[in-house]
Every structure is written in structure tokens, then in C-alpha cells.
UniProtKB/TrEMBL annotation:
Highest taxon above the source species: Bacteria
SUPFAM superfamilies from the UniProt entry: Outer membrane efflux proteins (OEP)
Entry's family note: Belongs to the outer membrane factor (OMF) (TC 1.B.17) family.
Signal peptide: 1-21
GO function terms (MF aspect): efflux transmembrane transporter activity; porin activity
Pfam families, A to Z: OEP (PF02321)
InterPro entries to which the protein is assigned, alphabetical: OMP_efflux (IPR003423), TolC-like (IPR051906)
Name of the protein this chain belongs to: Outer membrane protein
Coiled-coil regions listed in the entry: 251-278, 338-365
Amino acid sequence: MKITSKIIVSACLFFGVTAFSQQKWTLQECVNHAMENNVSVKQIELDNKLAEIDKKDAYGSFFPVVNATASHSWNTGLNTNITTGILENQTTQFTSMGASASIDIFRGLQNQNRFRKSKLALISSQYQHLKMEEDVALNVVNAYLQILFNKENLKVQKQQYLTDSLQLVRSEALVDAGMIPSGDLFDMKATIATDKQRIIEAEYALLVSKMSLAQLLQMEDFKEFDIADVEYEFEPNTIFFESPESIYYKARQERTELKIAENNVKIAEKDVDIAKGAHLPSLVGFYSFSSRVSYADIPDGKGGVMRPQPFFEQFDMYKGHNFGLQLNIPVFNGFLTRNNVERSKVNLEKNRLALEQTELDLERNIYTAYADAKGAMETYLATVEMLKAREEAFRYTKERFENGMATAFDYNQSQTLLVNTQSDLLRTKYDYLFRTRILEFYFGIPIIQRN
């Protein structure tokens, strides 16, 4: 019975919990954390801010451009006396000030089209942000379900190890009773060693899946990361009441990637309008104001100094205004304008083709997702039936083995098929859950509601 005690102690060690997690993360918490901390999402948020700034730039083109200038200089040396006209060594100071303003009255509607384009670009950036959030949420759900699968698979492997450990005890009794040969004990021990190997592999797979989700959430300490234990049962999904055609029709109204492609076509159309506007004349209104002041200390010939006119009197005396209109008519610039128009037209056609390709990809993806989800459901149901058959087959083989009518090899073979089918059932269940989520996603149902 020494072997028995060692096996039982070993089984207890495998069921022991060695890791402590301060928080069990729910799926909702994982998605919320990813939205706030994922690097890709943050980058898109910065792109949104740049689009806002670009819109302000385009809006600012409707306002006048105003500049102010001022200068003050000293001229020391031989200069003409402004009173006598004689060259004398003196220091003369000059002050000048001015202000100017200009405004576009007409520029081929380029300013208006740039502003419209900036608003479309901002909308496109917001769609990109939404698309990135959807992709991140989808990846989080996939990683979360993978962890749940690995957890359940580990439970299956541990349960099988415990069952085989107890079976080894019964096999020892059968050997003592002379019902099975003693060599079968070696096969049972080999089976238990295989069970241990499967447990180690399952634990490693669970660790890797936790690490993948933790990295997706931008967490550094993935070793302490764990998720809440949630039981997802198989349930027929009402999405299958919809046809692929109806899902595609709904997706055409809802899908973000299609809205991005449509918006890009509109942006390209505005680029064409902006390029064409360079063919038209432009009219600019301008106004400027300037004045100057000059003064120097000039001897009056009587031992005194002649003072210049006061500063503000000179400023008022020499002030001037300049205003008018400037018309610019493009005549020839080396085909630059024409080439810009042709280039923008080519880019427009590329965006139209991209929109068409996006529609085709969306249709193909929906039909593929529908087939995958349908196939995952049928595979799961078939695996359920297979598991029932495997359980009956194993029960029958187990009874024959305990009665000395089957070998340990037969027992191990039947058990291996049962364990593999149990793992397949888990895999097909979570595959079905994820693929139906994707199909619902195309139908406009959020992957998960964000708080």
C-alpha cells in the first residue's frame, strides 16, 4: 500500500493552489481596462486630436491674417543735418511702426472645400477609433475564452489523474487477487505518468493564455493575473434565425470599416475639388497702416540744442494707409495644377475601388462567419454524442478490466479516447461561443457593452 499512499499524496499536490491573485478579472473589466490602456487605442486617440487641430486650421483660413511691425534704429556718424542740410557728426534715431491685414475674398472655393474635408477627416478618425476599439474588444473576448477553455481542460486532466490514481489502487487489489497479471500495474503507472505530463502541458497552456491577455491589457505582472471563473453553457443562438443575406444587409448599415471606406471616398472627392480650385482666379483684400518718427539732438549755434518735434506729433504727421484688392489669375505653372487634379482623380478612383473591395470582403467574411458558426454548432453537437459513446465504451472496458477480461492496454486506449473527446468537447464549445459572437458582431450586436 506504499504505492497507494504516494499516489494519493501526489494527487493532492496537483490539486493544491499555489498562486494567489488579488483580483479575479471579469470580461467586462478586461474590456474596459483594454480601452483605457491599450497602446493602439491611445494612438488612435492622438490621431483624433490631430484631426481636431486640422479642422481648426481649415476654419482659421476664413479669418484675416493680421501682422504688426515695429522697429527702432540708431544712426551714428556723419549724417545730413535735417535742418541745415550740412553733413555733421551726429546720432539720429528712427522709429517706425505699422500693421497689415489681408483676407481671402475668393480662392476658387478651396478654403470652403478644405474645411469640409477636415470635417470628413475628423469623422473618419472617429470611425477609426471605433474600429480599433472593436478589434481590441474582439481580441480580448477571444483571449478570455481561451483562458476559460484552458482552465476547464486543466480540470479534466486533473480529474483524470485522480481517477487513474484510484484505478491503480483497484489494480493492486486485482493483482493480489490473481485476477490480472502484475505486468498490468506497469501500464497503469505509465498511464499516470502520461496524466502528469498532460497536466503540466495544460498548466503551461493556461499560463501562456493568461500572459497573452495580460499583455493585451498592457499589464506587466502577468504571473499574478487571473480571470473570474465563469461557466458558459451551450445554448442555441437566435442569430441562426437570420439568413446570411439579412446579416449582410444589416452589416452594410452598421459596419465601421464600410463607413470608413465610404468616408474616404468623400474625402478624395473634396481633394479633387480643392485641386480644381487652383485653376480659378483668387481675390485678396488687404489693408496696412504705417507711420515713422525720427529725431536727433541738433546744436542751435547758441550753445543749446534744437529739439525735434514731439513723438506723437511726428507719428500723426507721417501716418499713412494702404488698402486695396489683389487679383491673381493663374496662367501657366508648368502643368503643376493640372497634374494635381489628375493625381487627385486617380486617388479618388483608388478609394472607390477600396470601397468596392471592402463591400466584397464584408460579404465574404459574413458568409464565412455564418458557415463557421454553423459548423461549430454542429461539431459541438456531434462531439456531445461522441462523448456519450466514449463514456459507455470506457465504462464497458473498465468493467472488463476489473474482471480480468481486458488488458491494461485496452483500458488505457479506451481512456485516452475518452479524455481526448472531453477536451474536444471543451474546444468545440468555446469555438462555438466565439464564432457566434463574431456573427452577432456583424449583425450589429456589440461584442460587449462598455461601461
